[in-house]
Design goal:
With 263 residues, the protein is of the alpha/beta class. 46% of the residues lie in helices and 16% in strands. The protein contains 10 helices and 10 strands. The strands form 2 sheets. Strands 1-2-3-5-7-10 form a 6-stranded mixed sheet, sandwiched between helices. A 4-stranded mixed sheet has the order 4-6-8-9. β2, α1 and β3 form a beta-alpha-beta unit. The radius of gyration is 19 Å and the shape is globular.
Length: 263
C-alpha cells in the first residue's frame, strides 16, 4: 500500500515501519494514526512476517502528538482528549504490544510523550547513543498516556517514574539503559547493523514459541504466582503441539541447524 506519513517495507520476513514526518519530528496526526492502523493490520494478516522494526525518519524517533493537528487543537472549543486517546492512542499501543511477533524499536533520536509509550510497547528498545527520552506531558498540563504510566513504574520503579513524569526532564540513552528503560545503546555508526543482525535472528527463529513467551511475560505483570503457573502449563501445551517444537527437537537430535517455519 502507498503511505504518506509512514514508510513500510518488507524484506525476507522482516517488516520495517518508519515514521515519516521528519519536518515535525515525526509527531503524530490524524493521518498518521490511520496509516499506522492500516499497516499494522496488514502485518497481523501476513504470516510470512517474522519480526517488525519500528523507527523514525530524520533526527527524531517520534515527538508524540502533533499539537497543530485539528483533532487536538480547535481554538477555544473544549476538546475531549479522552476520546482522542480512546480512538487513536490506546488501540495503537495495544496493537503493538500484542503483536504475535518480536517487535524491535530503533530509537534514532528524541522520543517524547506518546513516542516513548510507543517505544515501550515494543519488545526490544535499541537506541543510538545520542537519543533522548522525555515525558513532556507535564510541560503542558497533561497526564502521561500511551501506556507511559503503565510501563514506567514497572521498568524504572515508582520514584524514578514520578521524577520523569512530574519534572519532564530529558533522559539520555545511556541513563535510560542504566534505569532498565531500554535494552541496548549503540553508536550512530553501528546501530543499523546491530538492529539488522537482531532482526535476521528473529526472522529464522521459532516465531510461534516466541509469541507464547511474549504472552507469558506480558501477563505475568498482573498475575499471581498460581495464575502464572497455570498460564505456563497451558502455553507449554500449545508450544509442544507446534511444528517448530518438532523441528527444534529433531534438529537437536540430528546435530543440525533447525529450519523453523514460525508455526
Amino acid at each position: 500500500m502507498s503511505y504518506e506519513t509512514i514508510k513500510y517495507e518488507l524484506n525476507e520476513g522482516i517488516a520495517t515501519l518508519t515514521f515519516n514526518r521528519p519536518e515535525v519530528f515525526n509527531s503524530l496526526n490524524e493521518q498518521m494514526h490511520k496509516e499506522l492502523k492500516s499497516a499494522i493490520t496488514e502485518i497481523k494478516k501476513d504470516k510470512t512476517i517474522r519480526v517488525l522494526i519500528i523507527t523514525g525518519e530524520g533526527k527524531a524517533f517520534c515527538a508524540g502528538q502533533d499539537l497543530n493537528d485539528r483533532s487536538v487543537n480547535d481554538g477555544d472549543t473544549k476538546l475531549d482528549l479522552g476520546e482522542s486517546i480512546e480512538r487513536k492512542y490506546n488501540p495503537l499501543i495495544k496493537s503493538i504490544y500484542n503483536l504475535e511477533i518480536p517487535v524491535i524499536c530503533k530509537i534514532n533520536g528524541v522520543a517524547a510523550g506518546a513516542g516513548v509509550g510507543i517505544a515501550l510497547a515494543c519488545d526490544f528498545v535499541i537506541a543510538v547513543d545520542t537519543a533522548s527520552f522525555i515525558q513532556a506531558f507535564c510541560k503542558i498540563g497533561l497526564v502521561p498516556d500511551s501506556g507511559n504510566s503503565f510501563f514506567l513504574p514497572k521498568l524504572v520503579g515508582m520514584a524514578r517514574a514520578k521524577e520523569l513524569c512530574m519534572l519532564g526532564d530529558k533522559l539520555s540513552a545511556k541513563t535510560a539503559q542504566e534505569y532498565g528503560l531500554i535494552s541496548r545503546v549503540y553508536s550512530k555508526e553501528t546501530i543499523d547493523e546491530e538492529v539488522q543482525k537482531l532482526a535476521v535472528h528473529f526472522s529464522t527463529a521459532p516465531t510461534y514459541g516466541l509469541s507464547l513467551i511474549k504472552k507469558a511475560l506480558n501477563e505475568s505483570l498482573d498475575n499471581t504466582l498460581n495464575e502464572q503457573l497455570e498460564l505456563e502449563k497451558n502455553l507449554q501445551r500449545a508450544a509442544g503441539h507446534s511444528n517448530d517444537y518438532k523441528e527444534g527437537v529433531a534438529a537437536f537430535l540430528q546435530k543440525r541447524t533447525p529450519n523453523f517455519k514460525g508455526n
